[in-house]
Amino acid sequence: MNKKDNNLTPMMEQYLKIKENHKEEILFFRLGDFYEMFLDDAVIASRELDIALTKRAGNSANSYPMCGVPYHVADSYISKLINKGYKVAICDQMEDPALAKGLVKRGVTKILTPGTFTDTNYLKRDENNYLLSAIINRNNIYISYADYSTGEVYTTFKTFFNFDDLTNFFTDECYRINPSEILINKQDDKKLNVFLTSSQFYINYIEDIFDGVDLSVEEESFINENIFKDLSTLKNEGKIDDYSSINVLLKYLIKTQKMSLNHLNSIIYYEDKNFLILDEHCKKNLELIKGINTDNRSESLLEILDSTKTAMGSRELKKWIEEPLVNKKQIEERFDILESFISDLMLLDSTGTLLKQIYDIERLSVKISNKSINPKEMVSLSNSLEYIEDIKELFSRSENKMINKLSYNLNSLEQIRSEINTIIVDDPPVIIDDNRFIKHGYSEELDELFEASEKGKQWILDLEEREKNRTGIKKLRVKYNKILGYFIEVTKANIEQVPSDYIRKQTLVGSERYFSIELKEMESRLLGSKDEALKLQMKIFNSLKAFLLSNLFSIQKTAKEIAKIDVLVSLSIVAKNNNYVRPTLNTEGVISIKDGRHPIVESKFTEELFVPNDTCMDMDKNLIHVITGPNMAGKSTYMRQVAIIIIMAQMGSFVPCKSANISIVDRIFTRIGASDNLARGDSTFMVEMKEVSNIIKNATKDSFLILDEVGRGTSTYDGLSIAWSIIEYIATAVKAKTLFATHYHELVNLSEKYDNVTNLTIAVEKKEDSIVFLRKIIEGFSNNSYGIEVAKLAGVNEYIVNRANELLTDMQNEEEMKINKNVLNNKTYKVEQKSIFDVKKDDFIKDVNAINVNEISPIQALNLLDQIIKKSKDLI
Ligand code: ADP
């Protein structure tokens, strides 16, 4: 269908004209009480939203697809589309349809995209919703990101020696920030493009959105003064220029929101050297935010540490975990506060109880900014401020200096509270309708208007009684409807008794409807005063909104302060409940932990006890620990535990151990397990080597490295040689503290060659043909991986276990474990054992016998039968 089609209805012409400027979005076109979608948009929306697709006949013979959703539930449909990666443009009626002459004016009032969506009903309460923009220009990168729902804006700029490092930085930032939407200029680097096209992120290209648009923001009236001030400072410092990511970010927000960005109040310039850098692998391997098995916050460090009471605190805690500090003084200040809370459990408890009552006032800021805050939310704000006042008072009464100090920064915004309290009723509505929500006594004029309308209403209510008596018509009724207004209804049977002053208005089958001059006069007085009362009510409400807007920054500051207190309280509660201790910090490179525990693994243990272990590392003899020992002994757990304790300490948390002295580290790198990274287009071994190369390149003597079975992804001698030379390189060149777990027992020889390499192993007790894990880390090494024993414990069948034992004995007999091809190819079994067929048959019988017919559904039974048939065919 095209715009010039002469047979189009005027409405459809209007639609197509608007749609032309919103090709990328699904256009929600307001028609009466519905948002309608047409043509391709309708086809997509009906499929994605599971709503009926209908056809609308045009003036011409052709018809076109359409579908629609009621406007008052549109939010839930919009959020569904956004979650599925679509953008939505909202086209509203720009004038009252009742007053419009001809076609109602319509225009797009908002564009909703994943990174700019602010509906708190559909955003995750404990996660920020970031929009990120990046401009990459040769080896320079500008990154900015903002959470439009809370008003935070960050920016940074970095230059790299080569594009590979820039790409690594960019991808790490993407994983750290985890934006819902990315804006980036088009790239011609293959590796970066693979990331952009195949990662899970929602990517927009700046050239597609702002083709030929001037990106300067100086003329933009939607941006507030403070942002302009920050922009000019950053520009003077050379951290941004006219074509920076921050301009793109602001332009995009203006383009989509189409309203003032009042609550974006400052731009925070950040540098990664201000916090402990944790890359994507590290966050994933150490399960800081998500459990590896669960892929959500359960079984993660975040879950363990999250005892926060407010949504703001929960979001803040996540930031603390992802961005631990490196400044000793700042970290110790957090420790001091935790210590103060833990020493006064009553205070801790009371603060927690008060925090629980506090609303997500940070996310209210966007509503204050765009003036969409409703009366109910205002009261929630005021109640929250009341609780904040209580917290402030509680803190100021404390005898503890650290707690007192917390109260100084807490502003409970007395004036805002009292304004809301004197103006808005205690239990106001969410939706503003014809009801009153301004308190009695606040405005005399308003009281009078409402009173007049109430009186009129009462007069009309009394009229029925009066007229019944006057006319003697028992069934006379005074009624109201939208079209007629108030009227008197008399059934046909009583028409004779109708007095002469009644004026007939409408005739129905069984009755007649009348009005009287007196009734109409009262009605217009009543409706008039109600109308005026509502107008005045809105005026008062709007000036209260304006007042809140003028105080927006103080509200945001208070929200931030509460988020911080909530995190500190949460860390104190968790430290106390889990027996964590305050670590000591040093800058001498010593990491000494007595009886350390893994906070996540220990939390899963209920009956068995988690075995604590010591750690003693320094820049000297204990720089690198080569850890050998069987699979499943606890090597990975131990290494992760050390890294997590360091992270916890640097984020200001107490740590799971008896005592700890932690040297502040600048980066933690982890290379754990074999994982394909298909999103980056690499094979397993390639990924492993890229990670190693990145670690070696970026680690400093202040970094902490975990390398778990590096070299395993290739053949034995290749792998061993690579692992060997990596340790040599770290020991002599990088000098970063390193835990290196390996099955290459040859590597234990490195400790003889290098003073700073020590061997550790995890104790096991060998019992006949089985082993018992003692989980205790000790100095020394193990020259046996007990792989076959572990395979047996894991339930690998008898044939494989016996045959492996046999091969192993053969191989061990060969000089230097060289694998003699004859062993694999020519020799027959020495041990008497079942044939492969017998083992398979036994397994099959075991499986069938294990089925409990009473416990399975018919469908499950059919599935099992299917499998049994397949397996039995295999045995023939
Ligand atoms: P490895 O890396 O040596 O193969 P893991 O670290 O994966 O072994 O540990 C295997 C399992 O052993 C863990 O899942 C955990 O249940 C248990 N485990 C590890 N360390 C301990 C410990 N210190 N105390 C108790 N159980 C532990």
TrEMBL record:
CDD domains: ABC_MutS1. GO terms for biological process: mismatch repair. It comes from the Bacteria. GO terms for cellular component: cytosol. Residues 703-719 form the DNA mismatch repair proteins mutS family domain. Keywords: ATP-binding, DNA damage, DNA repair, DNA-binding, Nucleotide-binding. It holds the Pfam family MutS_II. InterPro entries: DNA_mismatch_repair_MutS, DNA_mismatch_repair_MutS-lik_N, DNA_mismatch_repair_MutS/MSH, DNA_mismatch_repair_MutS_C, DNA_mismatch_repair_MutS_clamp, DNA_mismatch_repair_MutS_core, DNA_mismatch_repair_MutS_N, DNA_mismatch_repair_MutS_sf. ATP binds at G629, P630, N631, M632, A633, G634, K635, S636. GO terms for molecular function: ATP binding; ATP-dependent DNA damage sensor activity; damaged DNA binding; mismatched DNA binding. Belongs to the DNA mismatch repair MutS family. This protein is involved in the repair of mismatches in DNA. It is possible that it carries out the mismatch recognition step. This protein has a weak ATPase activity. This is DNA mismatch repair protein MutS. It comes from Anaerosphaera aminiphila DSM 21120. The gene is mutS.
